[in-house]
Design goal:
By secondary structure, the chain is mostly beta strands. It has a single domain, classed as TonB-dependent receptor, beta-barrel domain (Maltoporin, Chain A, Beta Barrel), CATH 2.40.170.20. The chain has a 22-stranded antiparallel beta barrel. The chain has a five-stranded mixed beta sheet with strand order 1-6-7-4-5. The protein has a two-stranded antiparallel sheet with strand order 2-3. A hairpin with an 8-residue loop joins strand 21 and strand 22. The protein is globular.
Length: about 750
């Protein structure tokens, strides 16, 4: 039966007067997950374990979610392995809050989730809920545009499996898992290990990533306890430079990372131009029930991360890395260096919530307390004249961020067809920086913010198969470390006192859904109105962060449409489309201005004003079509088309600086064979073939740009850009055994 119909029937059953025991049992699932129910008036979609498992083994989680409404994904190396990014309604990764079992995975300082640091998540998840817009406050402390709520595997049957895949670009993926199932006394143990290797599509886009997940749990009559460990380890080549238009025309796989010239003028590449990071997440969860109506859940979390990257730098001054007259004869002389930038951090969380389930109401409240301590430092490892350098650290700084997040929410059903929702959240944030940065700026800074984020909505389900909802919310978001760092550097260099403001958004959602066993359809209108939104200027820092600025007024407004049709039992068609306008009002672009291209004497800033313009990397159309055909038995053919509209590199809406619209086709064939060799000797064999970019489209999915203006000379503009070409036709073959 269609999944949407099952969800609708279950939810309508919960709305209607019914036996209280049945209602409480349905909602107990919500207690452990913290997800929005079907009645909750938020815009969301669900992706379940089966769909995650049948995607290409090459895919990171963002790539596996690429067909969901309003989602656009890209991969720096051109494949699905390595650094991946996603936007939802144009909202960037730092605006998308990601939680695993209710604990946020976003880095506290950058507010990003670096998916390469936690590879193979699709192998351990039972489901993903994508909430578009502000969503529920309990979905994460800093959701500001969208949220992903991840739940780990929930099956309780004994099993073991081995899965191996191999394909294009010398890519392989190996996964081993084991589950003892749930014993009679309620004990369960589950573990999974995965390793992925690839050469990548572009040069230096190789990857060697691994992840491990283990869970011990015990379920009693009134108490549940679980201990979860998630490890991610990645070693990848640096790919964040992108590629210029000129280089793209000559060689799509070119990557400038690590390039230098030897003494004879030959072009060489530093072999260790790499990014490396290891992260461990440890969660202890306790859930207690006082009967069927009152539930208490508490989670302790510790996340530890350590990483570094090496880079070869050409033509840099000695003094840029802290060498003085005591170290070299001329600190202003230029040379080649190999540098190492490192970081280590610890993130501690205590989360606790209490929920009450009445006959017509659900009332809950909770607290989320966290502390983050992040250390950043840089060392020079080698110099062309000095050789190997064992102990030269040129910067060290530390950031400490503390947060208190308190929420209360209630849902009330006065009549079976109507559900009212209110959600109140307070966030208090304290952030401090000390030390010096890589440009010798004093990073001493203390700041804090207090935010009140109310949400409210109504859901109306007058008849079976039909649901309408309306939702309005106010959200705030604090600046990230890179935003603050750029302001500090600007103020120190120019003697200014510029300040960066937190963002504010009012989100309005109005939607309708219809679902039967054969047909489902939905439409949602969203109005995301921003004040002081932080937008990228188009320039990147050395480590790939986008530099942002506040714009007074901007908005994302659109309509999301989705539908599925099942004309026959074994044939299903799906599609979704988002039409949107993503605009900034009264926007002024600022550029560095110099005298001419020969001398580069700084003269100040050049301004370009726009009464109204389009936000960068925000397509006005995103859509997909997919068909799934179960031919016979469990043999399944699937094909899909992903449409992404034109995207501008910066906020000037220039046709000279945009990515053309593109369409990408993918296909897969999977089959399952149950092989019985006698009592207790049976297993399931899985075979799969995954075809990516079926029609070999040569397209780019992401870009950045930096521009400078010249007041004199024959050249008016200087431009650097980075485009990220995606892989042409590629394939992966998969074989798996489950015992």
């Amino acid at each position: 039966m269609n999944i949407l119909l099952i969800a609708a029937l279950a939810a309508l059953g919960a709305l209607a007067p019914t036996d209280s025991l049945k209602t409480e049992r349905i909602d107990s699932v919500v207690v452990s997950s913290g997800w929005a129910r079907w009645q909750t008036p938020v815009t969301s979609s669900d992706v379940y374990e089966y769909e995650l498992q049948v995607t290409s083994p090459l895919n990171s989680l963002p790539m596996a979610l690429s067909l969901q409404p309003s989602v656009v994904t890209t991969n720096e190396g051109g494949t699905g392995l390595g650094y991946s990014k996603m936007t939802i309604r144009g909202s960037k990764g730092s605006q998308i809050n990601v939680t695993l079992n209710g604990i946020t995975l976003n880095d506290s300082e950058s507010q990003e989730v670096f998916w390469v640091n936690i590879p193979s998540l699709t192998k351990i998840l039972s489901s993903v809920k994508i909430q578009r817009g502000l969503g529920e406050s309990v979905s994460g402390p800093g959701a500001f545009g969208a949220s992903l709520n991840l739940e780990d595997n929930r099956w309780f049957t004994p099993k073991a499996s081995v899965d191996f895949s191999y394909g294009s670009f010398n890519t392989s993926s190996t996964t081993v898992s084991g589950d003892i199932g749930r014993s009679e006394n309620g004990f369960r143990a589950y573990a999974i290990y995965s390793k992925g290797i690839t050469d990548g599509y572009i040069r230096n886009a190789y990857g060697d990533v691994q992840s491990a997940f283990a869970k011990l749990s015990w379920d009693g009559r009134y108490d549940d306890v679980s201990l979860t460990w998630l490890m991610g380890d990645q070693h990848t080549g640096i790919t964040w430079n992108g590629i210029s238009k000129a280089d793209l025309a000559a060689d799509r796989t070119y990557n400038s990372a690590g390039q230098y010239k030897d003494s004879e003028g030959n072009i060489c590449y530093y072999p260790n131009e790499t990014d490396n990071y290891t992260q461990n997440h440890l969660q202890l969860k306790y859930h207690h029930r006082w009967g069927l109506r009152l539930h208490w859940t508490s989670v302790l979390n510790w996340t530890n991360g350590k990483g570094y990257y090496d880079q070869y730098k050409t033509g840099k001054k000695f003094k840029a890395y802290g060498f003085g007259a005591a170290d070299v004869a001329d600190p202003s002389a230029k040379s080649d260096f190999i540098i190492n930038k490192s970081m280590s951090n610890n993130y501690f969380v205590v989360k606790s919530d209490l929920r009450y389930f009445g006959n017509r109401s659900i009332i809950s409240g909770g607290v989320y307390l966290s502390t983050f301590d992040g250390l950043h430092f840089g060392d020079v490892k080698w110099n062309k004249e000095l050789g190997e350098i064992s102990d030269h650290q040129w910067y060290l700084n530390e950031g400490i961020k503390k947060e208190a997040n308190v929420w209360a929410r209630a849902e009330y059903t006065p009549i079976p067809s109507l559900n009212a929702y209110v959600d109140l959240q307070y966030r208090g944030i304290k952030y401090g920086l000390t030390g010096i940065d890589d440009e010798f700026s004093d990073m001493t800074w203390d700041g804090g913010w207090s935010f009140f984020n109310p949400r409210a909505g109504l859901t109306w389900a007058p008849r079976l198969h039909h649901k309408a909802y309306a939702f309005v919310a106010l959200g705030h978001r604090e600046p990230g470390r890179s935003d603050i760092k750029e302001i500090i550097e600007t103020n120190n260099a120019a003697g200014t006192s510029l300040k960066i403001k937190p963002e504010k958004m009012v989100d309005t959602e109005i939607g309708y859904e219809y679902s039967t066993s054969r047909v489902s359809a939905s439409a949602n209108i969203y109005l995301m109105e921003y004040k002081d939104m932080l937008l990228e200027t188009g320039k990147l820092t050395d480590s790939g962060y986008a530099i942002k600025e506040n714009v007074p007024r901007s908005w994302r407004r659109g309509i999301e449409l989705a539908a599925s049709w099942k004309p026959f039992r074994r044939l299903n068609f799906e599609g979704n489309a988002t039409f949107s306008v993503n605009e900034i009002k009264d926007y002024t672009a600022y550029y560095e201005e110099y005298d001419d291209i020969d001398n580069w004497n700084f003269l100040g800033q050049y301004q370009e004003h726009f009464d109204k313009t389009t936000m960068l990397m925000s397509p006005s159309f995103v859509g997909m079509l997919r068909s799934t055909w179960n031919i016979f038995g469990e043999l399944t053919l699937s094909s899909d088309l992903k449409f992404v509209g034109k995207q501008y590199w910066d906020n000037t809406a220039s046709e000279d600086r945009c990515l053309p619209a593109y369409v990408v086709a993918n296909a897969s064939i999977t089959d399952y064979f149950d092989i019985d060799l006698g009592p207790r000797h049976s297993f399931r064999l899985t075979l799969g073939l995954f075809l990516g970019n079926l029609f070999n489209r040569m397209y780019e999915a992401d870009a950045w740009v930096y521009r400078a203006h010249f007041r004199g000379g024959s050249t008016e503009w200087y431009q650097e850009e980075g485009l990220f070409p995606q892989a042409p036709f590629n394939c992966m073959f998969r074989v798996g055994l489950q015992f």
